[in-house]
Amino acid sequence: MSSVYINGKFKPLAEASINVLDRGFTFGDGVYEVIPVFNRKIFRFDEHLQRLDNSLKAIYMDNPLSKNEWSDIFNQLIDNFEDKDQSIYLQITRGVSERDHDISLADKPTIFAMSRPIVKKDLSSGIKAITSEDIRWQYCDIKAITLLPSVLLRHRAKEQGAKEAILIRNGYVTEGAASNVFMVEGNTVYTPPKNRHVLPGITRDLVVEILKRNDINIIEKTIELEQLLKADEIWITSSTWEIVPVVELDGRSVGEGNTGLMWEKANDFYQEYKRSM
Ligand SMILES: Cc1ncc(COP(=O)(O)O)c(C=O)c1O
Predict the structure, then answer these.
(1) How far apart are CA 215 and CA 71, in angstroms?
(2) Which atom of ligand 1 is nearest to 240's Cα?
(3) Given ligand 1 and candidates 51, 136, 148, 180, which is best to mutate, with the most ligand atoms within 8 Å of its CB?
(4) Is the predicted pLDDT of residue 214 greater than 70, yes or no?
(5) Residue 222: its pLDDT value, please?
(6) How far apart are CA 39 and CA 125, in angstroms?
(7) Are 202 and 172 in contact (CB under 8 A)?
(8) What's the 261 CA to ligand 1 centre distance in angstroms?
(9) Among the CATH numbers 3.40.50.620, 3.20.10.10, 3.40.50.300, 3.40.50.150, which is that of 127-276?
């Protein structure tokens, strides 16, 4: 059985346990990261660790481990599997305390990490999505483990035969329940700017970088719902899904109703970048 990392030790998953008074369990008081591994190499390690530091800082915590310590842990977890492509999940909570909101009561953080092979679903022919009100809190730039709104949003999407909910706050697109959003209008690609209502997706940033490098017009600006509904193409991005075209939104075809040429280009650039790493 593959092992996972819990508070300084590697243990079989079935033996890894935490105290029921862990604040992650009682308050959802913690943050997480999902880091892809392609060809057995940790993808965008520095960027993920920087986002982890930002999330921790925002909840008044320090990173309990150094970069080298994280790297050693990740590499040991990756060695559990022969699979070339894996996904590392790590979670840090404020630790154990009596059930009281006061954060000073927790003595040390709980640290958990595991890796799993990426079970690749072929989403290259596109997915269906719905639009939904963004019912989440005001600090969506923190990768917080408190994911109940996103769980409900994904469930609503599934109930309507869709794979993702694209979230709308005050008439503007923020992101997906677990992804960032891009849209294409003519020869220009748009994605909402990073702010408190958008998680700074590592894939999002990389796609922006790659498109710029390949002289594709990419503009980071607010997208109104009306504009999204008229888009020629819509894509969503995330570490494990990469770049996925949305071919149907709220039951209506996006553009021609199939994967667009701009998506094909972006995806080719992205796959080329992965191979070059
Ligand atoms: C709300 C949200 N936005 C965006 C993303 C995409 O981020 P990344 O590209 O770093 O996986 C995720 C990933 O899980 C997410 O949960």
Answers:
(1) 34
(2) 11
(3) 180
(4) yes
(5) 98
(6) 24
(7) no
(8) 24
(9) 3.20.10.10
